[in-house]
Amino acid sequence: MRNRTVLITGSTGGIGWETARGLAAQGARVILVGRDARRAAAAAELLRQQGTGTAESITADLTRQDGVRELAELVAQRHETLDVLVNNFGYVPPRRQLTVEGVELTFAANVLTPYLLTTLLLPELRAASGRVVNLTGGIPDGPIDPGNLQAERRFLGWTFSQYNHCKTALMAMSYEFARTTEGITVNVAYPGHASTPGSRALPMRAAPWAFRPLIPVIQVLGPLLFKYTAKAARSSIHLASAPELEGVTGKYFDTNAAEAAWPAAVLDDRNRSAVWELCNQVVSAA
Ligand SMILES: NC(=O)c1ccc[n+]([C@@H]2O[C@H](COP(=O)([O-])OP(=O)(O)OC[C@H]3O[C@@H](n4cnc5c(N)ncnc54)[C@H](OP(=O)(O)O)[C@@H]3O)[C@@H](O)[C@H]2O)c1
């Protein structure tokens, strides 16, 4: 990865941070992205001290389209080429709410942000035959409801959550991106559960009813029960750097960095079209 430029969103903590550490250790030039400027600068400094590569940081609010656009502009100003984009940032809102652009927040953060950032950085990615890695989560083999993509009818249920729904929708968007876009590769990684700032702060009311009793247990025992965060970064690091994956696109890799079958909902053309069209529509309307 020496001299390769890698952008990782949500990388000043959690799985993104471990992904950054792993790729910097292979000599990559890493761009860290977080919300908090001080944390981001400190993380980049730590990486410079630990890694054999170089590191810089950018702050952006990735729940907003203007935040995504500012990030893309800064990256394009500073770098002519981008070898890897890891769309690692994910978010679990506690209730249905809309972004300033009027998009349901779970869909905006988990599906639209990776779609828009990849689209905006296509020239830099194409210039390097770049790799895009999108992170799924929750229960990724659940259904997609094309009539409920922005939780118009349902945000939470007994086992349903809009977060799980959107992570499967993200997989559909990634599949479609890989199928329709030349000059880059797009694959999906499932990290598995890890105790991270995000998972420790998971609000009880964001979980489906059936899983609520587990939330306090997860918050207290998560560090003991779950994978080490470094292990959860394994699939992302593999997809970003493995030489044998050169040119491999449109694949899904599980928590052990092994290729896995796409969920049935992702293989359904109607679901993929619905997700893709919604992404196009809300981005053009902004
Ligand atoms: N953890 C799990 O068990 C698990 C399981 C399955 C899938 N996943 C997926 O794996 C990915 C990483 O998960 P994680 O648990 O490591 O995430 P996390 O702990 O929530 O990630 C923290 C990072 O995200 C940044 N961040 C938070 N809000 C932001 C915003 N609005 N704009 C920009 N950056 C923001 C933080 O920066 P600041 O510190 O500056 O806020 C920090 O760098 C996500 O896509 C998640 O859905 C996680």
Structure keywords:
eight-stranded mixed sheet, SDR_fam, alpha/beta, binds NADP nicotinamide-adenine-dinucleotide phosphate, Rossmann fold, 286 residues, 12 helices, 8 strands
Any chance you could write out the topology, listing elements then pairs?
Layout: E1 5-8, H1 14-25, E2 29-34, H2 37-50, E3 55-59, H3 65-78, E4 84-87, H4 105-120, H5 122-126, E5 131-135, H6 162-180, E6 185-189, H7 197-200, H8 214-225, H9 229-232, H10 234-241, E7 252-253, E8 259-260, H11 264-267, H12 269-285
The protein binds NADP nicotinamide-adenine-dinucleotide phosphate.
CATH homologous superfamily label? NAD(P)-binding Rossmann-like Domain
Strand content: 5-15%
The run of helices and strands is EHEHEHEHHEHEHHHHEEHH
Count of DSSP strands: 8
- Structural class, by secondary structure, is alpha/beta
Organism: Kribbella hippodromi
InterPro entries: NAD(P)-bd_dom_sf, SDR_fam
Protein name: SDR family oxidoreductase
Keywords: Oxidoreductase
Molecular structure report:
The protein is α/β, with parallel strands linked by helices and 286 residues long. It has a single domain, classed as 3-Layer(aba) Sandwich (Rossmann fold). It has twelve helices and eight strands. It has helices at 14-25, 37-50, 65-78, 105-120, 122-126, 162-180, 197-200, 214-225, 229-232, 234-241, 264-267, 269-285, and strands at residues 5-8, 29-34, 55-59, 84-87, 131-135, 185-189, 252-253, 259-260. It has an eight-stranded mixed sheet, sandwiched between helices. Helix 6 packs across helix 12 (269-285). It starts with a strand and ends with a helix. 49% of the residues are buried. The structure holds NADP nicotinamide-adenine-dinucleotide phosphate. NADP nicotinamide-adenine-dinucleotide phosphate is lined by residues 10-16, 34-36, 39, 60-63, 88-90, 135, 137, 191, 193-194, 196-199. It comes from Kribbella hippodromi. This is SDR family oxidoreductase. Keywords: Oxidoreductase. Pfam families: adh_short (PF00106).
